[in-house]
Amino acid sequence: MDSESYDINLGNKDTETRKKASEDFISFWDEQAKKLSWFTPWEKTLDWNPPFAKWFVGGVLNASYNALDRHQSTKAEKPAILWEGENGDSKTLTYKDLFFQVKKFSNVLKSLGIQKGDRITIYLPMVPELPISMLACARIGATHTVVFSGFSSSSLKDRIIDSKSKIVITADGGFRRGSVVKLKEVVDDAIQGLDFVKNVILLERTKTPVNLNSKDKWWHDLMKDSSPDCEPEKLSSTHPLYILYTSGTTGKPKGVLHGTGGYLTHLQSTYKWAFDIKDSDVFFCTADIGWVTGHSYVVYGPLLHGATEVMYEGSPDFPDISRMWDIIQKYKVTIFYTTPTALRMFMKFGDEIPNSFDLSTLRLLGTVGEPINPEVWKWYYKIIGKEKCPIIDTWWQTETGGMILSPLPGLESILLKPGSATYPIPGVDMAIVNEDGKEVPPNNKGYLIIRNPWPGMLLTLWGDDEKYKSVYWSKYENAYYTGDYAIKDQDGYFWLLGRADDVLKVAGHRIGTAELESSIVSHSDVAEAAVCGIPHDVKGEAIIAFVVLKEGIKKNEETLRTEIVKEIRSGVGPIATPEQLYFVSRLPKTRSGKIMRRLLKAIAKNEKIGDVSTLEDGAAVSEVQSAFDELQKSFAKNKKN
Ligand code: PRX
Asked: Structural domains in the chain?
């Protein structure tokens, strides 16, 4: 932990908010929720039937109304989205334009028979039609489920089946690093045999030739004659706004379900507190909308505030590593929110590139998704922020809906420590505990938990209340288990140390080890597989796979390796491609069959196992040692080949 601190504040010195929140978090959130527009006020602020929270019970509202309608009298001509295509195309959508398109598309969905409560899968690249689709779903009360356009057809299929989506919205293709990803083909593959999918709406983006099937309808044809009048559906506060699938410790991804009133209240507040948003700002969050950061801080957060934001279609290093700085200069970006992985990549190319751009409009910088190393934090601060911009290191999860730990320069002044996400937001009570749930002393590592409900929290896991209870609320009594390790220092600052469970964070993407392993064993020659993450200087963590082949497989190892990698890419997606893949004769396991991932890590990093007596899985020392020796032997043999 770095002992340096930085005093960069933006002049906001509110102390009342925190005080009120700590006295009574329920009435505190009650006040915050009033900043949204409601058709009918709520009767009860929180109905807490642990672990199920219902926020603003009886309240009636609409997310698209809050993002669009309420700005029309004051901000109709203000740019909402400054869109930059990967190939240099650009487009500006004002609040009026966005409103118009959303209402028309809402009517398109209705004309295809979509009703309140139906689910719609969206598999689009980063084009304005993606937020338009989401807001149209929200307007008519359909629940959207956006799938990152880098996921494979089988991942997409799993999500369409689990959500029972009636419609899939996609494009002919998407641009990625100058080439075209044929999204329509992926969708065709995914929906084969799924009768409940009634239509595929197809946006023309790349003009890639496609095979049209009976379910397919072109976006532009449907929009041509669609009416621009569509009243927002009046929805209860707990109405499901979206499902977003995320990896966990089990083989199948979990459908995190978010509601409306609580979720939007969380974003309305955190977007203001963290980013200090002003009417004159140009906000740029680099996240893909396929992940939660994009949902919360590309779509809902900025639009709730009537902010102007840049949305970029492509890869941050295309056509070269200066693309982000070029965009900041071009659009005069004032607030920039990105990931430690992107920053590590930019930093590797030196200071000269960012120094050759005019970044003087920047006034606030943020990061999200993984721990940020202090060196990178300082580089960001000095080279990008020119020592005048606060850096907000924001910790949160798909499940939390919005930020939970972050400096809040839009609210208060705070000393920043490079690498620390500082404190929980007002109204959230967090602690670091040991295995037994007891708080650990300052500067000791433990599990990060949340001790009270918060408005952005997930409603449940889609269709699986029991799993929701067991994954998040069973490890500790009356506390939400985050799955992360952390430390709280002597000043109360939180330092995040990565996942404590079987989840990897590769380039900020969350990948479940079980999901990966099951895609590897789907190769017919594989008997067993185990994966682990090891530190990587750009991606934060890289995937290492250990594979045990079935008896008698005589195939060339290189061929097998290529085939297995292909299996992973089509099973999960290219983001899950392992850095290294080793064939071993046996996997180290405890007597209960749990894979000893710590051993795998030690082997891959060429380290000693360390103190085996503290192995959390309770395996016998001799058993661990012999498994380690055996694995090391077969690993060494494999490496030689
Ligand atoms: O391990 C933590 C890490 O990302 C996990 C959540 O991943 P996901 O649901 O994909 O959401 C990412 C974007 C909000 C967390 O459990 N994480 C997120 N932010 C940080 C972080 N780790 C350290 N520092 C952060 N600022």
From this structure: 63-233 (3.40.50.980), 502-640 (3.30.300.30)
